[in-house]
From TrEMBL:
Cofactor(s) for this UniProt protein: Zn(2+)
Source superkingdom: Bacteria
Protein name: Peptide methionine sulfoxide reductase MsrB
GO MF term set: peptide-methionine (R)-S-oxide reductase activity; zinc ion binding
UniProt xrefs under SUPFAM superfamilies: Mss4-like
Assigned EC number: 1.8.4.12
GO annotation, cellular component aspect: cytoplasm
Active site residues according to the UniProt entry: 122 (nucleophile)
Segments forming domain MsrB: 10-133
Family: Belongs to the MsrB Met sulfoxide reductase family.
Binding site for Zn(2+): 49, 52, 98, 101
Alphabetically ordered keywords of this record: Metal-binding, Oxidoreductase, Zinc
UniProt cofactor note: Binds 1 zinc ion per subunit. The zinc ion is important for the structural integrity of the protein.
Amino acid sequence: MSNDLKNMSESYWKEKLTPEQYQVCRLKGTERPFTGELYYNHKEGTYQCVACGEPLFYSDNKYDSGCGWPSFDDPVNKSNVEFHEDNSHGMHRVEVTCKNCGSHLGHVFDDGPRDTTGQRYCINSVSLKFQPKDQK
């Protein structure tokens, strides 16, 4: 399935995603800090890829890093995400994408909580959808 989704046309993604989701997920954009709906979400559940529904992060791994985007210290499973070198904007970062569909999610940094993984997955709220724990 992932190879099929990764090879879908841009017209497919333009129809499936909102303009803001398309800008972030397909064109590697970013939302303004502190504006994402899920930044303020404190409910229990799973954060999924907005484009394909792949489970990406559990609410138990979300924390307030103060950066303006939802932050997580670990993904549901590292096999659900991919990492890519990103040297855009005059800096070195590690981009995080959905392994299933290739959508841009955000970046991972080594300045997360030292009492857990030490990682900060800084993820665009618009690239996620939330599945509450009490719903299937």
